[in-house]
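Predicting holo structure, zinc ion bound.
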Amino acid sequence: MQPSELFMTGAAVALPSAGISAEMFIPNAPLAACRLCGAIYQTKFHRELHRYRQLGENDPPELLAKVLDLGNKWREGHTKYVHTIKEVEDFVATGWFLTPEAANVLAPFGIFGLGNMHVDIVESMLESSRKPDLTHLEGGE
Ligand SMILES: [Zn+2]
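Done. Tokens:
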């Protein structure tokens, strides 16, 4: 799947009132997300890197390397163990940035695709729950 820079993160909708603390997930911190199913991966290291950036400090090289490595390993494992090759190939053939299913899962977390927005994707985001589904979040505390 693609790196998180292909996603835009919006305001943290109502994450605290949905029971999602900053120890579990920070929407504008680095993350990895699956464009097929909307699974999200963000560890305490991703959030630690975000805190350095908020302070205006340079990324600590070892921390940045760890975050990139964790994200790459997660993407590789997630794609391999959760999705079939045919699923991935069928998705790639659509030319879409993400599936309507992924858009529906990610929107409540404040994550929106920046790629092409087919009407099905837009409708799926509009119809998504206001409350994020925590079963799609991995790496939280
Ligand atoms: Zn997936």
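The helical segments are 44-54, 61-82, 85-94, 100-106, 119-126.
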